[in-house]
Amino acid sequence: MLWSLVLISSFLGLREIEYIRNRQVQIVPQISREARVQERIRRFRSQGPEFHPQINKISRFSKFGPKDQIVMRVLALRVEFEEERPDNPKTTGTGKFKTESNGENPILGLDCSGRPYYNPFYDPPHDWTYFNNQMLALASYVYAATYGKVRLEWVVKPDSGLPPYKVPHPISYYGDTSQMELGLVTFMRDAFRAADKDPTISFEDLDNNGIKDYMEGIWVRYIIFHAGSAWQTDIAMDTPYDLAAVTIPPGALEYYLGRGYLVLNEGRDTVYDACILPETMSQDGVEIKLQGTLFHESGHNLFLLPDLYDTYGRGAGIGAFGIMTTAPYLDAVGIPGGLIPPMPNAWERMFMDFVLRLVYGE
């Protein structure tokens, strides 16, 4: 029995080594590219969460008791670009969201209880329902990660059935790597300007009850979902003008645009930062689901978590032992990357708790 276990473990170990070697082909370039993005962005990040411009404003109005569930709200925007005619080979897609599935069967069969076994490689049309389900996944993740302490509420705009907002330039205008930070900040500004034309949005009153969300002790965060893929997952390095998946921190707007916030809703609302994400992380024949990157960037966006990989590009840091490292790209045999990201590790949860206490008190 003992020798059988040794042989089995040795066999699994060899498969693991082979698997790791194959994964390095995909993971190492992503770490290096992510490090390049963070090298340019991190100088704008505050030295500590307590310096975030919205923290003090929210904490003054916090009404949550020690046993109350904390509420955060997220406004998710669906944004397309000026369509490329003809298609620019240096970007993924033409600037429009995918309106058809990838052709895979969504259900592979039924289990012994008659419940459907879903195909993890199925990719549905990237419509309002798709992004609303992404937000549902994020809300479930946050609820589990905080042991039910934080409830995430969200609004996806434009509403179901309406066309996405549109910025005035193609992807390549914002994705020029020679001025990456300026392009990302400009895209953020143009996306919010496009959304600001929608009279149904109040950027600081997402439930439209006439009271600013921060006056109810609720922190509002922002996500921009755009057409195309991400610069970090350009494995073939043939679409260099794809936008990086990144959270734009406070300070970047002031450095590049001369003002530290966007003024919206006829001067009634201000936005300091936002998360920028593509409709998919997949490209170059490699399937990478969006959930892992969404959860990772939301660590920055919702809880001000730092990256825990080596942001100088020399290594993966703590590797897959945390959502703020390479874990968003985790996969397994028969499971595409991004679909099985881990929960936050112990240190990450302690930091999340620190930020919640900073905002909402003990």
The number of distinct β-strands equals 10
Number of helices: 8
| Largest sheet report | 6 strands, mixed
* Structure class: alpha/beta
Helical amount among residues, as a percent range? 25-40%
Would you give an account of this structure?
The structure is a single chain. Mean pLDDT is 86; it is low at 1-25. The relative contact order is 0.16. The chain has helices spanning 2-41, 55-59, 128-145, 171-175, 180-195, 252-257, 290-303, 346-360, and strands at 70-80, 107-110, 116-118, 150-157, 165-166, 219-226, 246-248, 262-264, 269-271, 274-278. The strands form three sheets. Strands 1, 4, 5, 6, 7 and 10 form a six-stranded mixed beta sheet that branches. The chain has 362 residues and is of the alpha/beta class. It has eight helices and ten strands.
Key descriptive features of the protein:
362 residues; alpha/beta; 6-stranded mixed beta sheet; two-stranded antiparallel sheet; 8 helices; disordered N terminus
Please give a quick description of this structure.
With 362 residues, the chain is α/β, with parallel strands linked by helices. It has helices spanning 2-41, 55-59, 128-145, 171-175, 180-195, 252-257, 290-303, 346-360, and strands at residues 70-80, 107-110, 116-118, 150-157, 165-166, 219-226, 246-248, 262-264, 269-271, 274-278. It has eight helices and ten strands.
Present the secondary structure layout:
Blueprint: H1 2-41, H2 55-59, E1 70-80, E2 107-110, E3 116-118, H3 128-145, E4 150-157, E5 165-166, H4 171-175, H5 180-195, E6 219-226, E7 246-248, H6 252-257, E8 262-264, E9 269-271, E10 274-278, H7 290-303, H8 346-360
Parallel strand pairs: 1-4, 1-5, 1-6, 6-10
Antiparallel strand pairs: 2-3, 7-10, 8-9
Helix pairs in contact: 3-7
